[in-house]
Amino acid sequence: MAIETLVSGPTASERMAYRAAQELRDGDVVFVGIGLPNLACNLARETHAPGLFMIYESGAVGAMPERLPVSIGDPSLVTNSLSVVGQADIFQCLLQRGLIEVGFLGGAQVDRWGNINTTVIGDYANPKVRLPGSGGACEIAVHARRLLIVMRMSRRTFVESCDFITSPGHRVNGKRREELGMPGGGPTRIITDLGVLDFDATGEAVLAEVYPGVTPEQVKQACGWPLRVAETVRKAEEPDASVLCLLREKLDPKRLYL
Amino acid sequence: MNKLCSMKEAIAASVKHGSSLVIDGFTHLICFAAGHEIIRQGLRDLTAIRLTPDLVYDQLIEAGAVRKLVFSWAGNPGVGSLHALRRRSEASSPERLELEEYSHFGLLSRLLAGSAGLPFWPLSNYQGGDIARVNPSIKTVRCPYTGQELATVPALHPDVAIVHCQRADKEGNAQAWGLLGSQKEAAFAARKVIVVAEEIVSTEVIRADPNRTLVPGIIVSHVVHEPWGCHPSFVQGFHDRDNDFYVKWEDISRQPETYRAWLEEFVHGVKDRQGYLKRLESGLLDKLRAKARVCEGVDYGY
């Protein structure tokens, strides 16, 4: 039986993991988060970027986990790593020193400048929902040379203005990140379940790609600010049957994140 | 000097009402046994400090032991929320917990300053965003060499640091491997250090592999032998994380009634860690026990 007949089309998570993996180059030093970013990194390593260098904020450097980590501090990250260091070294010697090429973040809210909120919904002193907080996200946003934001799109999450800016993007309160003195390059793309947003020269997110079957109008409907659309909207590349098999059978067989 | 004692003795001698306290570990080496003993001893008004307060800190909050939380990421790692924390920090809460919030790098820098004997620590961070806006302890300084503006955070000196490790001798020379979190910084920053170990070994074992020693006995006041003291967290080389528990915890902790019932059964209802372990489902510990993966070792000869 041909493999195609066995495989159903990609789910939203599979699209996002695949599209995120396309952003990674062989040899990139990546600060990996748990969930889809981890899966995207594993996929890139299995396909076009075998030399991807994965660093986890828990201390694993050059990690090669045999199982998908269930948390950022999974013991499988340690086994077979090139180096395991304390967190002071992770944040000082690797991140602040400028050695991280790619960072991944997601969150509860994102705005058009790529500012991300993972702290509270509502007023900080009197929140409607208390979220986990920054963790290492703020410093990753400040220091990574390229930042990829991976988030499902809805009016609730893609907002006119974040309730709290945990991790700064291209522009905070009207000030550009260069003016503010942030060393990293800021967000390069927002990878969503509907398409991909790029950032223009002013630092504003612009719809640049849609998945097959999705129209720019649908994406605009799912966005909480008046989303600008690029002159030419590309078709986002989707995983083929062999990639889907790889994701489903080898990389996340227990469907932890897919 | 032999500093070995029971968890009960170590906590009673070190933690007072109103103490500031760090039970360190980054998903790994988190000493639940210490947190449970603190609850049993009825300690109150604690300032609980850790980058990643997780289940055991949430249990301390639910049990009424905590007045203030100093943290940078609070959640059930890989699973969900801390429900006692949320109940005490969201708009509807009648009795609000005091929160002092950083990012990981910021809180770690407070411990670094404390561990290095400096009044503050500079870091390149918080140039944009709201964390520094809501936390007045985060300030800035101008570098006298480059003119660059840097964020600063003040030194932190917890009254007590509790450090779990794989093995220690009776003097508290503690060796750990795997993810190290900020155990070393927390220990050196603190006024008092309790070392908790899976194994107590002779000083010869420590001296045979000195690079492995994370915390030297000279800063340690108490040593507790508490195998499985980290369950449901994990200890590299000893046991895996009990992930099923973390998943189940989401349901147990969502309602105050089931949460309190759990605390009654597994914390108040037992005398010590041995009692807790006996209440776990049979066969669980064997299931979690680590498969061996021994490294070759190094030659310290000269």
UniProtKB/TrEMBL annotation, chain B:
This is CoA transferase subunit A. It comes from Pyxidicoccus parkwayensis. Transmembrane segments: none annotated. Keywords: Plasmid, Transferase. InterPro entries: CoA_trans_fam_I (IPR004165), NagB/RpiA_transferase-like (IPR037171). GO terms for molecular function: transferase activity. It comes from the Bacteria.
